[in-house]
Each structure stands twice: as C-alpha cells, then as structure tokens.
Amino acid sequence: MPKPMSTRFLLRSAKPSAAPEGARGRSTGRRRNRGPRRALPRTVTAYGLLSAALVCFALFSWYPIVRGVLLSFQQVNFVDAPEWVGLENFQRLFSDPLFGVAWRNTLMFTGLALLLGFAIPFLTAVLLNELRHARTFFRLVVYLPVMLPPVVTALLWRWFYDPGPGLFNEVLGTLGLPALSWLDSSDTAMLSLVLVATWANMGTTTLIYLAALQTIPGELYEAAELDGAGIWKRLRHVTIPQTRFVLLVLLLLQIVATMQVFTEPFVMTGGGPDNSTVTVLLLLYRYAFVYNDFGSASAMSLLLFVALGVFSAAYLRLTTRRES
Amino acid sequence: MTAARTLVSPTQLRSRTGRTVYWTVLLLTLLAFVFAFLFPFYWAVTGAMKSSEELAQVPPTLVPNEWHPETFATAWREIDLGKYLLNTVIVAGGAWAIQLAVDVPAAYALSKLRPRFGNLVLGMMLSTLMLPATALLVPTYLTVSDVPLFGVNLLNTPAAIWLPAAANAFNIFVLKRFFDQIPDELLEAATIDGAGPVRTLWTIVLPISRPILAVVSIFAVVTAWKDFIWPLLVLQDPATQTLSVLLQRIAPDMPLNLLVAGLVLTSLPMIAVYLVFQKQILAGLSAGSIKG
C-alpha cells in the first residue's frame, strides 16, 4: 500500500539540484553515437532490472487505479458477477445523512489542523532558529513523537484526555482552569483529535521549516535592518517570502494528509460522540468493511480523489520541477 | 561561536536587555519542550508502573506511591507481546528488504541505462504519487485478496504488506535523483574493465550510494512499523497482526496499566532506532527526502 503522502516532499535548496544539464546532454549524445546495436541490449537489461518494479506497480498500483474507478459504478457481492449500476452508488452516498456530516467533520479537521499544524511549527521553527543553545536537544525532542506509531499515540492521548484521572484535566486544575470534557463532548472532540495529530506530526514540519530558515542569506536581514525594518517587518518581508516555497509545499501536503485522517478518530472516538468525529475515511471504512458495500466505498474514494487530486498534482509538479 | 545572521540582530542580542530577553525565552522554550515532548513519556512510563487502583485515582499522582516495575513483564506475558513483536519485525523487515530489492535496480535502470520509454515508465510511476493513498484502499484490498494472473490470496500474510510497499514511486524518484549525480565516467570505466550493468550496480553504485540507501532504509522500516490502516485491513487474523493492530484491538478489554505498559514497550524499538540513527533521520529530513 503506498503510504499517505503525508510528509513526502523535497526541499529546495538544501542540496544542489541533480546532475548539471550539460553532463546529462553529453552522455545522451554519447549513447546516441553508439547506435542502436548497443542501445538494444542495454534496454533489455534495463527492463530486466525494472521488471520486479513494473510487476509490483502493475498489480498493486496501476491495476487498482483502473479497478477503483470501475468499482465506483458497479455493485459487487463476490457471488455474482459485478453489475454495472451507473451512478447508483453515488446516489446512495448522497442520501446517507452521515455523508454530509463526514465531509463537514473532515473539512473542520483539516481547517483546524492547518490553523494549528501550520502556525505552531512555523513559529516554533522561527523561534528555534534564533536560539543559540541546546539546538541538538530541541531538534531531537521535537521529532520524538513522530517516531511513535500513531495507534500508540492515540491510545496514550485517550488516556491523557480521560475526564477522571487524566493528565490534561489535572494540568488544567493545577493552573486553576476548569476541566474540559475533551473526547466526551461533541463540541470539543474534533479539536481534541486535531491536538493529538498536531503534537504527533509537528516535529517533521518544524524541522523542515528550520532547514528552510537556515538557507536564508543573513545579508537580507542586515539590509532590511538598515532600512529600518523592525523584527515583525523582517519576519513579514524577509522570512516569509524567503520560505514561501516550503510553506506552499507543506500547505499542499498537509491538506492532502489531513483530509485522509483515520487513525485518530478510529482509535480514539470511533466517530462519536454524536457522530461529531465521523470522517470521510472512517465512513469509507464502514461502507467497505462493515457494510461490505465495496461499490459505494469506491465511489467515496473517487470523490476523495477528485477533491484531493488537484492538491496532489500541484504538489507533485512543484517538487519534481524544482528538483530536476 | 559565530552563528549565521538571523531575524534578530546580533547587536540587539548583545545589549543588556537583549541578553535578558534571550535567556528568558530560551528557558521558557526549554520548559515548554520538556513539558510538551518529554513529560508525556514520563507520564506513560511511570503510569505503567502504578498499581491499578493508583492509576484510577483522582487526582492522579505525579510520582507513583508504589512502584510496580513488574507490570512490564506481566504485560509482555499477558499480551503475548513477543509474538506480535516478531510479526511486526517480519512485516517491517520484509517491507524494507523488498523495497530495496525492487526499487534500487529500477531506479538504477532508469537513471543510468536510460532504456527506451524510460521517461514514460518513470512518469507513470510518479503519477501514482498524485493519488491519495486512501483512494486505492478498496481496490488494492480486493486485488491483494485475489492477485490477478497469480490467483493467490495474500490476506493475512506479510506479503500483503511487502509487495504493495515495493510499488513506491517516491523511493524510485529519490534513488534515481541520487544515481543521476554519479558521474557516468565512473561507470564507463567499469564497463571498459568488463563489468556488466548489474556488476556495476553492485560494486560501484551501491557503495557510493550508502547515504541515500540509509535514508530510504530507515524510512521504509519506520513507515512499515507505524502503518496502521493497511495492516488493519489485510491482517485480520489475530495471529498475524502487528503491534499497532493488536493494541487497538485489545485496548477496550485490557487493564489500563497493562495497556500502557504495552504501549511503552511498543514504542521502545522505534525510539531506539531514532536515538541510534538520529543523524541520518534528521539529515534525511532536511537534505532531501522524507516520508512519514
């Protein structure tokens, strides 16, 4: 299964980009000089080396893509041959009251996750970039949660959120704040899930921002300072424009990743309370593996793909073009 | 120490107020980091060592009144963690080995042998990155349950995770990009000495590529270890499940201290990997490729 694209990404200037154009052009020329007699066995060897990958891609990536589209318009029960039902699966989805709820919840999760998961790591990175001490410690520690399996994180946090002997209400109490119902109220459940997800993933984004910040030439800050720009103006007119590319790429990635949220609601709330944390993927999972309605589940995947395809394509275009 | 110029100017920092502000901010950040990222681990480790009654007590205790380190041993025995740890190691190790065995030769072929239609193949592979992983959940599940042409059912076998993991366009892209940087002259020299493409790959390209192979390897293992939704679907037989799938399955019926002990034990291998390979992991993050 290809992993969610959550954090796949290539950083712009951390490394000089691939082989210089000249070198590549030269070797292509050389190959052409050898003529087809040498190129053919080379191609045969190449496809020999590629064969395992081609088989894996064909079976587990390209074929499922086609099949997924077909399934969206079919009814399958694995006894009779699949039956072509046109848009019936989509109609069934649209008439399910949970369908709208799931999309609303997912958009809410994405919105909140962007608000927190975008701002907090960026500000943390800006802050860490100014600090001259304990740098290794900060880096080491902020990435620690990323290494935890998401199920472990979710189960631990479910315990932290516990309204009785939970850690968080205890902390709130120590600070003189009222206890919250966290996962037990439909008002706060989604926010509680966003908090876990942000905590678990902010290490990655923070370190990527930090790397991007370190490529900003110091002269720009000096020049801005000579022009009389204060710290906020320097942040606004130097830091943010200089990290624009990374900000954009991570924005796309986070949209794509957070729209596919599954583990946190599945493990922590099961969609409740009052369906307030039923997400698109959770509903998709129910359709496929609880109701055994693979057609409708595929239709849902297709809708999710359409919703996310644009962002994924933009991300892919940006990163591959920058790099090659 | 001469650090690069950043947002705050060095003159500002050197002033008396500048220094006071700096040390205050540093101290607060340190405290915030310790509380946000280390304290939860402390809470889990000590929580596992509390007695059941103490764990249910309101308000919770910061330091256990009684220490029960034997909870870890009990959890290991009761949950049968050894068996599931082995399952997870097989899944993650196999995913790693197969990804390298499949993706490295493919990337090498596309980068250095540049076969006809090579760019088309690469493009078709890369275009799969455009699909959100979950869009393929259902059709890939159905495919794995009855692999076309081969007619085998891979459900409840580690191969259900290994083989789809090998169709990893991102690995191929990262590896190809690295191989592209290896000068052709080096490979030509090997060819003149009579080495074929496979031998060149093995004796020249792979040794040079150690850093990128390390990054790809670590991320392959970590990804497989952390994955949840796919193993949840394809490993429904309890005997074959990985730690993540097991833990969410048994969580509702487990005494809390045993569960927390199990969670701690499950995270230890990844934390150990992180502490050992932190240089490669953090460098992999900032120098090029990351997957999470």
Largest sheet entry of chain A: 2 strands, antiparallel
Chain-averaged pLDDT of chain A: 85
Number of helices of chain B: 15
- Strands of chain A, count: 3
Summarize the biggest pleated sheet of chain B: none
Strand coverage percent of chain B: under 5%
Distance between the termini of chain A: 26 Å
Helical content of chain A, roughly? Answer: over 70%
Order of helices and strands of chain A: EHHEEHHHHHHHHHHHH
Q: Identify the quaternary structure here.
A: heterodimer
Indicate the low-confidence ranges of chain A by residue numbers.
1-36
Helicity level of chain B, as a percent range?
over 70%
**Approximate shape of chain A:** globular
- Strand arrangement, major sheet of chain A: 2-3
At a glance:
The complex is a heterodimer of chains A (324) and B (292). Chain A contains 14 helices and three strands.
Give your account of this protein's structure.
The complex is a heterodimer of chains A (324) and B (292). In chain A, 72% of the residues lie in helices and 2% in strands. In chain A, strands 2-3 form a two-stranded antiparallel ribbon. The two termini of chain A are 26 Å apart. The N terminus of chain A is likely disordered. Chain B has 292 residues and is an all-alpha fold.
Write the layout of secondary structure elements.
The complex is a heterodimer of chains A (324) and B (292).
Chain A: E1 9-10, H1 21-34, H2 36-72, E2 74-75, E3 83-84, H3 88-95, H4 97-130, H5 135-147, H6 150-160, H7 167-174, H8 189-213, H9 218-226, H10 231-242, H11 244-258, H12 263-269, H13 280-290, H14 294-323
Helix pairs in contact in A: 2-14, 3-14, 4-8, 4-11, 4-13, 5-8, 6-12, 8-12, 9-10, 11-14, 13-14
Chain B: H1 10-14, H2 16-48, H3 52-55, H4 70-78, H5 81-113, H6 118-127, H7 137-145, H8 159-166, H9 169-180, H10 184-192, H11 197-208, H12 210-226, H13 229-234, H14 243-250, H15 256-287, E1 289-290
